[in-house]
């Protein structure tokens, strides 16, 4: 008798769990608001990537065309696959001394794995990850970018 | 006077008896599609134009063409529905790009399939390999022929309609075994043998579930089964055992069509694609189409036996309500019920995880078959005592 009641309990439990599964998917089916797929090219205007998304490395500039990079090469050393190269130049000061400043911060997006190491390594918080992700171009050369804008200077108080 | 006396003696017997149908009313509602006049007219005009032999040949050709078109359309619509329903269950949108809401997607896929090269592998048994897709399509063709689609829209009304359909639709397993064997591929062979074990097992409980209702109908003829539901569908009239039988039939039917959660015959994650691994192009399309048509057939049988086929929703002898329901054409009733059951099967597929082969056979031999046997006895007892409506 015990076995029979066990059997019936088994069946009832099975039916109950199956109905539980069906109710979950049924809820999703009848609530289209839950759908998480986005129609990408159509929603370009309103699309906002989430905060921690890593699109590419950028160097923010302020309105006076100043950036925070002093050309210390920490990012170049930190980069695991050599996608950053710092080109520096020497400025001759009035007192006859030479001063090393940044000329070009060259960033090769086609080599970058978006590991965030350069952003972490930067002592002056000059680099940031942007949320831009449309990187398709017609040539690899276009993916090699100079991050500091032409004529930009380093912010005061951050020079080496 | 006699009728009055009858009412006094046996009111409850009269209440649920088959009420005489009012033929005048149906004639009055001219737009309520009755296909028997249309088919009769076609038949008569063909026989007046041609000699009898030629006329019946022409009829066969016409019916064959109708079914071919129906098959193609059914396949396209069901594939689209499957993809959309699946997507909505998984919080996706599904095909959206080709045509409005992706409606032309299946047409594009179909054209792509037709343009592909039908490969035959080098070490395959060529004759059996090429024969298998045709057997599967022929099996579903024969089953569809016996299904009543609407009032008067019925290709063959066999005396043993339901028996014929269950017998013929299980020919499909032969083609699966052939495909698996002739491919000369271990995945295909494992898939085919699993499928054989599965279909042979589940045929039993599907048959028993149908028999449970046939106790009440007293006939295997599909038109009579539908006619017996004039006062209400069997799922309501046969109450508890009918509902149990319906649940068992749905489980067994899903297993028979090799659909998830019973899709171990083609389990993508373990057997690549099971018995149709080596097929491509139009031959693969045949297997693909047959899977969806078999789903339609199983749903159509369930709709016919449990939900009254094309019979509108009638409650006993509430004549006014019944006539109100008759305003909806019988085609709409049939396809509405079938699509609801198809939706139910898709719901199963995209909710439950796949069963292992031993779990699958345990479910059939230790649960479904004993339950359906007990249910069968229960229904026989109820039928004997007249405890159904």
Structure characterization notes:
The complex is a heterodimer of chains A (160) and B (389). Chain A is of the alpha+beta class. Chain A has helices spanning 2-30, 74-78, 117-121; strands spanning 56-58, 66-67, 84-92, 98-108, 128-130, 144-146, 153-154. In chain A, a hairpin with a 5-residue loop joins strand 3 (84-92) and strand 4 (98-108). The model of chain A has no long low-confidence stretch (mean pLDDT 87). By secondary structure, chain B is an all-alpha fold. Chain B has a domain at 114-385. Helices cover 69% and strands 0% of the residues of chain B. In chain B, helix 4 runs antiparallel to helix 5 and helix 5 crosses helix 15 (281-306). Chain B is globular. At the A-B interface, helix 1 of A face helix 5 of B.
Features:
heterodimer; A: 160 residues; alpha+beta; Alpha-Beta Plaits; 2 domains; three-stranded antiparallel sheet; two-stranded antiparallel ribbon; 3 helices; 7 strands; 21% strand; B: 389 residues; mainly alpha; 18 helices; globular; disordered N terminus
Radius of gyration of chain A, whole Å: 28 Å
Number of separate domains of chain A: 2
Strand content of chain A: 15-25%
What is the 3D form of chain A? elongated
- What is the N-to-C succession of helices and strands of chain B? HHHHHHHHHHHHHHHHHH
The total strand number of chain A stands at 7
Q: Give the overall shape of chain B.
A: globular
Query: How many E-type strands of chain B?
Result: 0
What would the average pLDDT of chain B be, to the nearest integer? 81
Short description:
Chain A has 160 residues and is α+β, with helices and mostly antiparallel strands. Chain A has helices at residues 2-30, 74-78, 117-121; strands at residues 56-58, 66-67, 84-92, 98-108, 128-130, 144-146, 153-154.
Sequence-ordered SSE layout with sheet pairings:
The complex is a heterodimer of chains A (160) and B (389).
Chain A: H1 2-30, E1 56-58, E2 66-67, H2 74-78, E3 84-92, E4 98-108, H3 117-121, E5 128-130, E6 144-146, E7 153-154
Parallel strand pairs in A: 2-7
Antiparallel strand pairs in A: 1-5, 3-4, 4-6
Chain B: H1 2-9, H2 11-15, H3 23-28, H4 35-49, H5 52-89, H6 105-115, H7 126-145, H8 161-169, H9 172-182, H10 186-217, H11 222-227, H12 234-237, H13 239-256, H14 268-271, H15 281-306, H16 319-326, H17 330-349, H18 357-385
